[in-house]
Amino acid sequence: MIVAVDGQPCDPHEPEDGRLVLAPAMRIDIMLDMQGGPGSRHAVVDDFYDGLVYTLTTLAYDKAPPLRHHLLDAPRRLPANPLPAPDLAKAERHEIVLQGGMMGGGKLAGVGGMMGMAMPGMNGAAAWAINGMSMTGDGDAGMAPQFTLKRGVTCHLTVRNETAWWHPMHVHGFSLSVLSRNGLPVPHRQWQDTVLLAPKDTIECAFVADNPGDWMLHCHVADHQMAGLMTVFHVT
Questions:
Q1: CA distance 135 to 150
Q2: How confident is the model over 79-92, as pLDDT tens digits?
């Protein structure tokens, strides 16, 4: 049962198809009901990439009889953290568009530089852009913000991935209430600071700008960030 995402409690729920999908910077808290038989062993595998399956760990059971034959009588829901609720009716809307990657018409959906293919931008040049702007390397202290929010306003943020690559987009300073993915509501009341976008995905999310300062928003695949997939927004 997933009980929290990126450190924020959510509605307890079983993962879709029994699989946990985690990109760089993403975290998931789970409660695991151990139902294996005495002496049994069960591999936990990463099989996201075809041909690159490997074992993360193995769950091994003692040969002794189980300590109990039923779940503990304990609540699965964790208490929510005190995050301010977005006011969508009064929200200020902004959009982030992820661009670039495979130039020349090539496509490599979901593989991200594996299988002997070179990653765009590995030579240090700009290969990615956010809303047409590329910030390479470690960024610039004087870089212009994509948008500015007044403190306390609700921001409705749309993130659109126009590339053929996966991008875990991470925001500093805030947790985002994830509203929809490709027009479909996201269930379980999930708050995240890192949202994984598949190729051509569109994510809608919201947050209250209660934390003043300049905040970075970037892809947490490090070479994507270093090759242009990074920006900042400002909260006054």
A1: 24
A2: 999 999 999 999 99
